[in-house]
Every structure is written in C-alpha cells, then in structure tokens.
Specification:
The chain is built from four helices and no strands. The chain starts with 12 loop residues before the first helix and ends in a 5-residue tail after the last helix. The chain has 94 residues and is mostly helical.
Length: 94
Amino acid sequence: MIPLYKPHMPELPELDSILHSGQLAYGKYTREFEQRLENFIGCSQGHILATNSFNMAIAVTPSLLEIKAGDAGYITFLHGLKQGMRLLHLRWLA
C-alpha cells in the first residue's frame, strides 16, 4: 500500500524524552509548560490548567468556575452540540 501522507517528526531530543517518559497526560513536563505559559502571559501562578483534550477542558471548566446546578449559561455553536449536551447531562446548565 502507498501511504497518502507520511508525517514528519523532527529529531528533537526533548520531544523524544517526553514521548518515552510515560508522562504524556500530566507530569513534570506539563507543569513546566503551565509555568512557562503563566510567565509568558503574565498571569498569577495557578491560573493555567493544561488538559489532554477539549472534552477534558469542558469537563473541568464548570468546577473551576464554581458553576452550580441551576446557574444560567450559554453555549455557542463553536462548542458543538455534543459538548453542550454533555454539560446539560451533568446538570451544569439548567
């Protein structure tokens, strides 16, 4: 079979050590990324949270923003129907 696309992976020792560390979801590299992003943006420490996916970000956002059941909220079409229904199912939005 002829591959339609062959991804290019540059030779980066840092990337190789991260991929083989077993800490892809959360670990020292993620904490370092959060700290560097905080410094770059100039926000207070602890106000950046890196997640492994959009779904995880949607899942933790209501807790971080202290949104309770019955609070009013809006979901734009950018979030998509799937994520909106998930929030409704979790009863974050009434």
